[in-house]
Amino acid sequence: MAKKKHAKKPQPKARKPKPASLAKQARPGVSAPPSFRTYNIPDLRLEHPKFRVYQSSEGSNVAYRIAGDLSAAPPPIRDSKYLTREQCVSIYRWMLLNRSMETALENLYKQGKVVGGVYFGLGQEGCSCASAFALGPEDWLGPMIRNQGSLLVRGFSPRDIMRQYMADFRPGCVVALRRLGLPPRVRSDLDAR
Predict the structure, then answer these.
(1) Does the pLDDT at position 106 exceed 80?
(2) Measured between alpha carbons, how far is 98 from 126 in angstroms, rounded to an integer?
(3) Closest Cα partner for 100 from 129, 71, 78, 75?
(4) Is 61 helix (H, G, I), strand (E, B) or coil?
(5) What pLDDT, on the 0 to 100 scale, is given for residue 29?
(6) 99 phi and psi, to 5 degrees?
(7) Which tops the pLDDT comparison, 22 or 49?
(8) Measured between alpha carbons, how far is 182 from 187 in angstroms, rounded to an integer?
(9) What is the SS3 string spanning 9-49?
(10) Shortest CA distance to 120 belongs to which of 132, 108, 103, 133?
(11) Is 137 helix (H, G, I), strand (E, B) or coil?
(12) What confidence tens digit (pLDDT) does each residue in 82-102 have?
């Protein structure tokens, strides 16, 4: 029997390094190596607060500190070309409800009354509530962790969300699933239960 000859695998071609002159032309005045991306993000805020937030460490403790003038009044609600003032206030109310509910949920978790894990969306209320507020009545919602605010906007009650975390299933919880905007076939299956 003849032995089969194995073909040699082709060796990858070596990359030619960029000349130093090309690296300097890409971003003049930047001292970072050409392998790093360097760019500036423009500051489009309308207010420029007179304080700064910085990180400080004392031993093994790391904390964020604020230095500067904190007595400035909050900025006014500005007119939006996309939302009315009433819609802005409505989104803000959903955000406050979301924050209150998650604070209560955090306290229940610390007391050991929550079954399983909890993923808090504290500080992310704007994303969760405003994105759900932008959906139409026939649009679907696929909430993930930290999206309790979107559930509130779409019609879930805080009670039903808390029951889910505390593993307290009662008939009202199935009713709440219908508010997600599920297709008629799935809704009719839920009605049969």
Answers:
(1) yes
(2) 10
(3) 129
(4) strand
(5) 52
(6) -65, -45
(7) 49
(8) 6
(9) CCCCCCCCCCCHHHHHHHCCCCCCCCCCCCCCCCCCCCCCC
(10) 103
(11) coil
(12) 888 899 999 999 999 999 999
